[in-house]
Design goal:
The chain has about 475 residues and is an alpha/beta fold. The chain has helices at about 1-20, 45-60, 70-75, 80-90, 115-130, 140-155, 170-180, 200-205, 225-230, 255-265, 325-330, 335-340, 350-360, 365-385, 420-430, 455-470, and strands at about 100, 165-170, 190-195, 210-215, 220-225, 235-240, 270-275, 300-305, 315-320, 390, 400-405, 430-435, 445-450. An eight-stranded mixed sheet has the order 2-9-8-7-6-3-4-5, sandwiched between helices. A five-stranded mixed sheet has the order 1-12-13-11-10, sandwiched between helices. Strand 3, helix 8 (about 200-205) and strand 4 form a beta-alpha-beta unit. Helix 6 runs parallel beside helix 13 (about 350-360) and helix 7 (about 170-180) packs parallel to helix 8 (about 200-205). The two termini are about 55 Å apart.
Length: about 475
């Protein structure tokens, strides 16, 4: 409306000037003006002004039939980025304290988590070679797929083929692809609770029904296999596990993973194994890939270089079919993945070109350094959280970059729930923590410990200060 008003005002002035221009020159002496002093637009320009104004006024009254997609509102409401953006918007701009990010899994901003020079050099060489300035095949270039197949085959009892590997724009894109492939009418998928909400977001957008099975905190966040069996029906297509765990920091044992495989086989479904944090373990349980049990049940492994190499911005992920019996080919799931990638974006070819060198030449001492930092940070986090009475940690993290802790709001004044806690914590202490409701558990918190140790200490100290300020008086 304001835009149209300005247009009308401009038109009025211009046409008034044009009307004056039609008067005889003698008429201007009354106003002590000269006709030449008036900046009068030509008649053709006035016509275009009139047409523009007419169209704007016409458009203001026209009812357009297009509108935004409401499905995106539902999907965005349950994704980590949406919640973190809201918390960041709630930071106090007048607070001189630096904001401390304990809510997301990107430690690359901290110097102690810098990636290996081997990875950086591989990118430089790929760029300078001028061999990777082209588009790539939609499933990825062969050298990269061959290198990933060899890398993942090291931990399983059979050899993966490059034909089993599909490259994606990071692991989130892998999730988008597999959820879209499975989203057929009446189908449903089983997701862990708590879990990584990108699965819920993509399922909501794709109209794929979601059913949640529980992870049991008292048992190291193991899968409640009884609930899996109770939830599944003839329309269930797959179940998702995230190992090492996001958001729980758990690491499944080999025995537990075998039980997961046997349960899925019994139900006639396949397993989607999100292993983006693969090998980032520092507890008593080593990392065991779900693909190890591919002969029992078909497994689709999702992964990337983002976490183990600390390069989430490079956006290189993969989907791998761990299926020596060929069930995913017979059911045409593999073909559907390929077809979806034909209508999807490809990861940068230059990053693909660097993958063989990154996977084959990275030294073990780099991985050991990252594991040591994460292990020490997990110890700091676990110990310092014990000093905050309103927070309970049921299981010390053994992998990934996160820990789930229970929030007792009954010990706090003027705090309604976990979301309220996180909003006020951001406002008062400039600390960002993810509310548990975002990952499926109300009145829990997900805390990221993969930050500089001194920053982690400072952040946990501020949470303790926040508790002291809001604790309920006896």
């Amino acid at each position: 409306m304001k835009s149209n008003l300005k247009t009308v005002q401009a038109l009025t002035v211009h046409f008034a000037l044009y009307s004056l221009s039609t008067l005889p020159t003698s008429s201007f002496s009354t106003f002590q003006l000269s006709k030449a002093s008036l900046q009068i637009p030509p008649a053709t320009e006035l016509a275009s002004y009139w047409e523009l104004g007419y169209l704007e006024m016409e458009n203001a009254s026209k009812k357009w039939v297009f509108k935004g997609n409401k499905a995106l509102e539902a999907a965005d409401a349950i994704c980590v980025r949406g919640v973190l953006n809201m918390l960041n918007d709630n930071l106090n701009g007048d607070d001189n304290k630096p904001a401390i990010p304990l809510g997301h899994g990107d430690p690359s901003v901290f110097p102690c988590f810098r990636t290996t020079a081997i990875a950086e050099d591989a990118i430089v060489e790929a760029v300078r070679s001028a061999e990777f300035n082209c588009y790539s095949p939609t499933i990825g270039i062969l050298p990269a797929r061959r290198a990933i197949a060899a890398y993942l085959s090291q931990d399983i009892s059979y050899q993966l083929s490059p034909d089993d590997v599909y490259l994606t724009v990071g692991c989130n894109n892998s999730i988008e692809v597999i959820i879209s492939v499975l989203a057929s009418p009446s189908a449903n998928i089983l997701l862990p609770r708590p879990g990584y909400p990108m699965y819920e977001s993509r399922a909501a957008f794709s109209n794929l029904e979601v059913r949640h099975f529980d992870l049991v905190p008292e048992k190291g966040w193991q899968v409640d296999l009884d609930s899996v069996e109770a939830l599944a029906d003839e329309n269930t297509v797959a179940m998702v596990i995230v190992n090492p765990g996001n958001p729980c920091g758990s690491v499944f044992t080999c025995q537990h993973l075998k039980k997961v495989a046997e349960t899925a086989k019994k139900l006639g479904i396949f397993v989607i194994a999100d292993e983006v944090y693969g090998h980032l373990t520092f507890g008593s349980n080593p990392f065991v890939p779900m693909g190890k049990f591919g002969s029992i049940v078909p497994v689709i492994t999702l992964g990337s270089i983002s976490k183990r190499w600390i390069v989430p911005g490079w956006r290189l992920g993969w989907i791998v079919t761990c299926d020596p019996n060929g069930s995913l080919k017979k059911s045409r799931i593999a073909e559907s993945i390929r077809r979806y990638l034909n209508i999807s974006a490809d990861p940068p070819t230059v990053i693909q070109g660097a993958i063989p060198q990154i996977l084959e030449k990275t030294k073990d001492d780099f991985f050991a350094k990252i594991i040591k930092i994460c292990s020490q940070a997990a110890d700091i986090c676990y110990d310092r959280l014990k000093e905050i009475p309103c927070i309970t940690c049921p299981h010390k993290p053994e992998g990934s970059m996160f820990v789930m802790v229970k929030l007792n709001v009954s010990l706090l004044e003027d705090i309604d729930d976990d979301m309220d806690f996180c909003l006020k914590l951001a406002r008062e202490e400039s600390v960002i923590v993810l509310p548990g409701v975002a990952v499926g558990l109300k009145n829990w918190l997900r805390i990221t410990f993969a930050v500089e140790p001194s920053t982690l200490e400072e952040g946990l100290g501020r949470i303790k200060t926040f508790y002291n300020r809001h604790m309920k008086q006896q």
